[in-house]
Design brief:
- With about 775 residues, this protein is an alpha+beta fold.
- It is built from 35 helices and 8 strands.
- It is about 55% helix and about 10% strand.
- Strand 2 and strand 3 form a beta hairpin.
- Helix 6 packs parallel to helix 8, helix 9 packs parallel to helix 11 and helix 30 packs antiparallel against helix 31.
- It is found in: Cytoplasmic vesicle membrane; Endomembrane system; Golgi apparatus.
Length: about 775
């Protein structure tokens, strides 16, 4: 006999009454022992009660896997009370990781064909919750039949099950295409909402379904127009907005159908304008519909006036008291600023006001949008606002704000003096948060502006005298004082009030920088070099400078010690050469044929290495882990020798003789892979100075409706060749012809052996993992002969 056990209600009361966790575990362990004993004895009458208690224990986080097989027995029972608990247990205890879930396929199939609505509903709920790909393939015909059943209860659940099947197995889209057209005529709210969801899933995962459902755009437009004008059902209205959930879902589907399709976009333009102007914005439900309308307008081929209306709606969102709505508006405007710059510019004052938000996420989005709105016409006004924000912004935003100001000033600076003043203000306010290249950029800017040398050195000296804690500012000031210290001592500067400075004050300030505990080793190096340069620009004795230099000959910092030793040697042994060695840096020439040629060479180099910076060692190991892909080729990275041009070629280029060899004929590109809109092309370059080297640039493009993520391309070549893979430019290829991924392969083929290439592609597309391994044998002959 089975020992008496607690009822479910008594078990819940006893567990809740436990005062400690140990007491709770004791109650549960005792009851689980009773449940196991009941399962072993095969009590069919009370099996569903025991499983119900076990499910409650499972919901508390305790192990309940021993009840999986009991779920199968209850599902196979003919009693509804048993099936109800059995299906509930299957949804909670079974998933795709357990092979036991496949055993209920036949039971679900039988229950779907019984015709009993409550039982069909239980089977459909279970299938839509834990149905695996194999189960979906086996049961798709039964679900298709139930889509056209007269009972709305069964049809609604069948539609939701079909959505799950499409997500699991996109190949089943052809099964559910025909019923969807008939279901669009339904008046039942749940069926219509589920149908719109199902069509959306079909269109996102199947190009054929997308083309098929573009024919029903007028019908969708009519449904939405009815919702907006006359309403669908008062019981589904929220805050005076007629069925906002259905409106949002239809707008989402229209956005997918109208994307990159002129005819469909034109059909829905008038409706979108009607929705945008007639929706109440006093409640969140109306704001949700309006936001979905804006997204649809921006994604389709809408009229210019309609796009301006959408931007104005987002501008009104910025004035809303709800922070979530303001954040959504800022994020959406940031996406639109490139395509509709002038329309977004009208809301610039409101965006700037959002910089003062106390919410960090809002102020960050407002900063990003403000920086994106800067152009040559408003750069002065925007920089004033951004500099004021920089002084009071939170510490975690200072780096982004400072970097954004520097980039905008470099791009849109009206004058060099304004540019210098802007950078100096940033360095003074947030010098510790600027990018590493800010010092080099400012020194280059000052060096190239000869007419501003006196102005710059006076400004920087004043700033350095007030604050030596901002290290980038101190470095630039030390460099400028060392280069143009003579202009500082002359005191002639028309732009600012004349400043009388003597030599002792300048030397004392640089010594203060050297001795400060806040100075970095690099900053001390700038100051020491500035002192050394001043030794040729000052009229007085250099003994003080020599003493400071000799002190740092024993500095613990190796770099600073080396500088001091070299400078001291310059004083002692090569004093006659000191003036020539320490003369002013030459002006930086940014224009002219030499600069144009350098820019051209840089552009060519960028085309060859467009993929990304050189990968780190772990990345290289991961990319080249292709053991035995092709004739046992090793996946280890093989370092190629440098490209040393031959003497003859170098002589021809040096003398620019007319007998220079003509450039080789271009090698034709090759398409090697295409699947569901994802395409892989190879382009080839053989440098004339090293014919044994072949540079292959792979380009991955995506013309489908879904993004390609986690894209990895690996390669192998025969043992007689050497292969080196550069890191790719990214791992995501956006949908609809977005920015492609590029990657560079370097192949050394000194013996001119026939070239074969084996590729392995792995990526995620339409929520499915894809892996393709294939060999490329049709490479152009010009790539290896």
């Amino acid at each position: 006999m089975v020992a008496p056990s607690l009822k479910l209600q008594d078990l819940i009361e006893e567990i809740r009454g436990a005062k400690t966790q140990a007491q709770e575990r004791e109650v549960i362990q005792k009851e689980c022992a009773h449940i196991r004993a009941s399962f072993r004895d095969g009590d069919p009458v009370h099996r569903h009660r025991q499983l119900a208690k076990l499910l409650y224990v499972h919901m508390l986080g305790y192990p309940a896997h021993f009840g999986q097989m009991e779920c199968l027995k209850l599902i196979a029972s003919s009693r509804f009370t048993d099936k109800r608990v059995g299906y509930l247990g299957a949804m909670l205890l079974l998933d795709e990781r357990h092979d036991a879930h496949l055993l209920i396929t036949n039971s679900i199939k039988n229950d779907l064909s019984q015709g009993i609505q409550p039982v069909q509903g239980l089977a459909l709920c279970t299938l839509s919750t834990m149905g695996s790909a194999e189960m979906c393939r086996d049961l798709a015909p039964e679900v298709e039949k139930l889509l056209l059943q007269p009972s709305p209860y069964v049809r609604k659940k069948a539609i939701l099950t079909a959505v799950h099947m499409i997500r699991k197995v996109p190949e089943l889209s052809s099964v559910f295409l025909p019923p969807c057209v008939h279901l669009l005529h339904e008046r039942h709210h749940g069926i219509l909402l589920g149908t719109i969801t199902l069509i959306t899933e079909l269109c996102e995962r199947s190009p054929a379904a997308l083309r098929h459902f573009r024919k029903v755009v007028p019908q969708l437009v009519q449904i939405l127009r009815t919702l907006v004008t006359t309403g669908y059902s008062t019981e589904h209205s929220i805050s005076g907005v007629s069925d906002p959930f259905l409106q949002v879902q239809i707008l989402h589907l229209l956005r997918i159908l109208g994307r990159n399709h002129e005819e469909s976009s034109e059909t829905m333009n008038d409706l979108l304008a009607q929705v945008a102007t007639n929706t109440d914005t006093s409640r969140n439900a109306g704001n949700a519909v309006l936001f979905e309308t804006v997204l649809t307008i921006m994604d389709i081929h809408s009229a210019a006036g309609l796009r301006v209306l959408a931007v104005n709606i987002l501008g009104r969102f910025l004035l809303n008291s709800d922070r979530n709505i303001r954040y959504v508006a800022l994020t959406s405007l940031l996406r639109l600023v490139q395509s509709d710059h002038s329309a977004v510019q009208r809301h610039r004052p409101t965006v700037v006001d959002c910089l003062q938000e106390t919410d960090a996420s809002l102020s960050r989005r407002a900063l990003e949008l403000s920086l994106a709105l800067v152009n040559s016409s408003n750069v002065r006004a925007m920089m004033q606002e951004l500099q004021a924000f920089l002084e009071s912004c939170p510490p975690d935003l200072r780096a982004d704000c400072a970097s954004g100001i520097l980039l905008a000033a470099e791009r849109f600076a009206p004058t060099k003096r304004w540019h210098i003043d802007t950078i100096l203000h940033v360095l003074t306010t947030a010098g510790a948060h600027v990018r590493d290249d800010a010092v080099a950029n400012l020194t280059q800017l000052i060096g190239g502006a000869q007419e501003l040398h006196a102005y710059s050195v006076h400004r920087l000296y004043n700033a350095l005298a007030e604050d030596i804690s901002q290290q980038p500012l101190v470095q630039v000031a030390a460099w400028c004082i060392g280069e143009y210290g003579d202009l500082l001592l002359e005191g002639n500067c028309e732009e600012i009030e004349p400043l009388q400075v003597d030599e002792e004050e300048v030397l004392a300030l640089l010594e203060k920088v050297l001795q400060s505990h806040m100075s970095l080793p690099a900053t001390r190096g700038y100051a020491l070099t500035a002192l050394m340069k001043l030794s040729t620009r000052l009229q007085g004795d250099n003994n003080r400078i020599r003493q400071v230099v000799s002190i740092y000959r024993s500095c613990l910092d190796v770099e600073l010690q080396q500088r001091a030793v070299e400078y001291d040697t310059l004083f002692r042994k090569y004093d006659h050469m000191r003036a020539a060695i320490l003369e002013k840096m030459p002006l930086v020439e940014r224009d002219g044929p030499q600069a144009d040629e350098e820019a051209k060479q840089s552009k060519e180099a960028a085309q060859l290495s467009e993929a990304a910076p050189a990968p780190t060692e772990p990345q290289a190991s991961q990319l080249l882990d292709l053991l035995d892909l092709l004739d046992g080729a090793s996946g280890d990275a093989q370092h190629l020798p440098p490209l040393d041009p031959s003497p003859g070629v170098a002589l021809v280029y040096l003398l620019d003789l007319p007998c220079a060899p003509p450039p080789p004929a271009p090698i034709p590109d090759l398409k090697v892979f295409e699947r569901e809109g994802v395409q892989l092309n190879l382009s080839f370059i053989r440098p004339p100075e090293n014919p044994a080297l072949l540079l292959i640039t792979i380009t991955a493009t995506n013309s489908s409706e879904g993004d390609v993520t986690n894209f990895i391309c690996q390669a192998a070549v025969p043992k007689s060749l050497q292969l080196q893979l550069q890191a790719p430019s990214g791992n995501t290829v956006p949908a609809q012809g977005g920015l492609p991924i590029t990657q560079l392969f370097r192949i050394l083929n000194p013996n001119k052996a026939p070239l074969r290439l084996k590729l392995r592609l792995t990526y995620n597309h339409f929520h499915q993992s894809v892996q393709e391994i294939f060999e490329v044998n049709n490479l152009p002959v010009e790539s290896w002969q």
